[in-house]
Each structure stands twice: as structure tokens, then as C-alpha cells.
Amino acid sequence: MSLELVQGDITTLAVDAIVNAANSSLLGGGGVDGAIHRRGGPEILAECRALRASRYGRGLPTGQAVATTAGRLPARWVIHTVGPVYTGQDERSSLLRDCYTNSLAVAHELGARSIAFPLISAGTYGWPVEDAVRQALVAIEEATVGPDEVRLVLFGADVLAVAREVVSER
């Protein structure tokens, strides 16, 4: 897998799959989740509701991943994953890495050749950006399956600069 760091809006990328940093309800929310649902249209929400009714009545567990249509987005699929909330007290890094590896596995099952990730848990869920980048890189590097092309989409020049610094330190 090749990894590229890019700054931008994940909802505009023409890749096979984009990853949604979803909440466990799968019914939309703020941040990346809200942007994907708004731009993708009602088709995404309809499939998420069907998933809640059939397999995820209690919501999608943290670290797991599931795919839906991408609706009106330029991608083919949206892979929804629920990142852990950062507490600073509990060691939840493995759950954050699971978001990436499970999303990559779902993308592989779908036959996706390209995937774009937001920086999971680094927004509303409070994960420190530098460590969120580090966890993403470890998970992507250690993944045994996934698309050929992986993009880590960073919202803002400041976050991109931090990500580049973390990569250069490795």
C-alpha cells in the first residue's frame, strides 16, 4: 500500500472508498460524519438505518467498520467506523488502530483499490493530533490487506504540517 498525506475535504475525493469517522448511531452527526451525510445525500442515511435495523441495533461498536453506498459523493462506498473518545487516562490506542485496519479490511472485501481516511478521533473525540497521526501510520503500515492507494486527508494546513513532521520522524 502506498500512503499519501493530503490536505482537503474528504467528501470531494474521487476514490473507491472514503472512511467516515462516524458516531455509533450511524445516523449522522457533526464534523466529517455530518459533511459526508450532507454531501452524500439520503441514500447513505437510508442504508445506515437499514444496518441499525438489521445488524447494529445497539450501534456500531468502537473500532469496527461497515460499508454503505456513497450516495452522491464521487466515491463508490463509504466505510463507517467509530473512533474511540480520548480520555488521557485509558489506553485506547488499539481501538483507534482497529478503526484503520478494519476499514482497510472492508475496503479489501469490496475490491476497492483506493481509500481516503480522515484523521479519526482527532476532532470532536479529542485525540491529540500528533498521536492520532502516529496511530494511523502504525495501523496502515501493519495492515495485511487493503487497497493499493491510501490517502490520509487532513483538514487544514496546521494538521498537515503536524502529520508531515510525524512522518519525517519515523
What does this structure look like?
- This protein has 170 residues and is of the alpha/beta class.
- It has a single domain (2-169), classed as Leucine Aminopeptidase, subunit E, domain 1 (3-Layer(aba) Sandwich), CATH 3.40.220.10.
- 40% of the residues lie in helices and 19% in strands.
- It has a six-stranded mixed β-sheet, sandwiched between helices.
- The longest helix is centred in the middle third of the chain and has 18 residues, at 93-110.
- It is globular and about 45 Å long.
- The mean pLDDT is 96.
- Residues 1-170 form the Macro domain.
- This is O-acetyl-ADP-ribose deacetylase.
Main β-sheet description:
6 strands, mixed
Which series of helices and strands comes N to C? Answer: EEHHEEHEHEH
Tally of strands: 6
Can you identify the CATH class?
A: Alpha Beta
InterPro entries: Macro_dom, Macro_dom-like
Protein name: O-acetyl-ADP-ribose deacetylase
Pfam families: Macro
Organism: Rugosimonospora acidiphila
Keywords:
O-acetyl-ADP-ribose deacetylase, 6-stranded mixed sheet, single chain, 170 residues, alpha/beta, Leucine Aminopeptidase, subunit E, domain 1, 5 helices, Macro_dom, Macro_dom-like, 19% strand
